[in-house]
């Protein structure tokens, strides 16, 4: 059986069919611009994977293998899901077909995973018919670039890995006590003067408007939306260190490079506060392609209940004024939130009553449970980096959970999907980041994509080992957990 992650809805392999040699392989695009664009992307990806040039051509060489890429309204998924696709490598030519650009792109990722290596014959394509569609429409990663900054080239590497496992959301945590990492045109001093700090003391910087534009374009080409987060009213020391007017005593706070959370806050009744919120959210909405802004709402531990609730209402209103929809961390549910506010669940220690009440008001949820999906948690107690407040998170912990039944009293059909999350207090290099992401990110990919009855830990373990061969070739670091028999 081919080693595809996330496990597709259905994979059939013809009995006794031997794999096809990639020699002479070409890609043939359908007539539309979308088909051409995806074919060019497939050419780049497959050429790198196979180590031979796989060009886009008008027609196959006589006798040589070809894959046609076609948009086809009837293709993919048994339930007509827009992101579905079909890959068939048993026909001549072979085909990737899908109803949407995203489906076609996902099909290409599956085709990549049908490549195998044989010691004698070289790179081969396994024969299979794959019909597939995702369980959830929201499949994301929260990435913290506030505690330690990660520049564009590393973010693009992360996007490439997300795309390979059919994720479609990159949620960037852009601001926190340790830094303001996005240019805010109406408040230029924020990024300019509050980005020279970080937890490591050496991963500083911020995304300029041009960087953010490039990042969104790079992500969009790979069918990934970038959801930006400005965290308020807690986690705001990077702002209060610049603006004394956001403090009751009028004095800016000290800059911060520590690990503690929950000490910083905005103050509702100050005249500068609401204009600050409207300015930075207006700026953010102006540069964001996605329909959502994330405005945080977590761990505002120094705020009283009343003041916190006023902030949540103000944040909801300020986002609505920009024309965007709002996402907040789970704490906001207690405020209480509007039904249209999406809640991101993270802390499984919390009393669930506010979430159940929010669900009854009609709220939808994104699931990021710390004890399964927080990829900054240590794998083992003696692991050299990471945190452990949500417990140790080994690969199997990231794999074995069900978003639909996670919060008792929140119906499964109010769950929009899943986000893994990686917080970077203890991570500042590309190698450290990928050590924590891989292999666990692929486990969360399967939780987000694959129906529970198709998931199987023993089978997944063997597919992870195959995936790691590709990570080694691509120079991606990963943690060699003893839960997998690595090749
Ligand atoms: C909790 S998750 C946080 C973050 C920390 C993270 C570390 C969330 C909404 N808040 O501020 O970085 O734990 O694991």
Short description:
This protein is an alpha/beta fold.
β-strand percent reads: 15-25%
- The percent of residues in helical segments reads 25-40%
CATH architecture heading of the largest domain: Alpha-Beta Barrel
> What does the average pLDDT come to?
96
The span between the termini is 17 Å
Look at the helices and sheets and give the structural class. Answer: alpha/beta
Number of DSSP strands?
Answer: 19
| CATH fold topology of the largest domain | TIM Barrel
Which ligands does the model contain, each kind named once? ligand TNX
Spans of at least 5 consecutive residues whose pLDDT stays below 50 are: none
Which value, in Å, is the CA radius of gyration? 23 Å
Strand order of the largest sheet: 10-11-14-15-16-17-18-19
Q: Total number of helical segments? A: 14
Major sheet attributes? 8 strands, parallel, barrel
What general form does the structure show? elongated
> What is the CATH C-level name of the largest domain?
Alpha Beta
**Assembly form of the protein:** single chain
The total domain count is 2
